[in-house]
Amino acid sequence: MESPVDPSHDPGPNIVGQLVRFTIIDPGSLKNAVDAAVAKPVSSVQLANNIPEIGVVSQIRDLTRENADVVTALPVQKFGVATQLQSGTIKNIHVSTSIIYHELPNDPSVDFVELVEYDCVSEGGDSGAAVVDTGDSVRVVGMHIAGTGDGSGSLFTHIRYVFESMGVTM
Description:
Blueprint lengths: L16 E6 L14 E5 L8 E2 L3 E6 L7 H4 L3 E6 L3 E17 L8 E10 L11 E4 L4 E9 L7 E5 H8 L4
Parallel strand pairs: 4-9
Antiparallel strand pairs: 1-2, 3-4, 5-6, 5-8, 6-7, 7-10, 8-9, 9-10
């Protein structure tokens, strides 16, 4: 695992961990829900719950257990590798859509379910960024998965689904 990614080298100079497990993306399935991986940090890497320009993460917030009327228009932020700090608001918490995967052979369109739509600027390289609510305590609500450069249609996966599929806790 590399952070930040340096595509000019293979492997790049920014190795931070070794891959432990990952989700399988199935282009033939209509029920993909999570695209995530877990890495074990290399010995020289110190982990912290501090997101640049956002602060220390205190906990998670499971939006799947809240009423859609409560979380629609909820202000959120992410700090992505490509776009740095970006803010937006949640538009829909139950989105099913297709995402084109240039990382897979033949650039397939992969169907995903139960994503969250928010209006936040995004570019390639932002995938995997924590999406947090902007309340008094920083709580992770999701993991950024895809979006547009103009901020018209970014998507994240509910953090509960990421944690469950990866077998991790906070």
